[in-house]
């Protein structure tokens, strides 16, 4: 993909990745205070909402 020394493809990529990171914070469970080496604390799909 030739960008001809344009800055906007990099800015668009960074903005897209920031958006992905922002959105995924609302869908991942909180892990603070959990011991993820224990099976019952590391189970996927547990949510408190």
UniProtKB/TrEMBL annotation:
Keywords: Membrane, Transmembrane, Transmembrane helix
Transmembrane segments: 6-27
Taxonomic superkingdom: Bacteria
Designated name of the protein: Major facilitator transporter
């Amino acid at each position: 993909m030739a960008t001809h020394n344009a800055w906007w493809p990099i800015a668009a990529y960074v903005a897209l990745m920031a958006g992905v990171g922002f959105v995924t914070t609302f869908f991942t469970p909180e892990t603070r205070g959990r011991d993820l080496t224990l099976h019952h604390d590391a189970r996927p799909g547990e949510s408190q909402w």
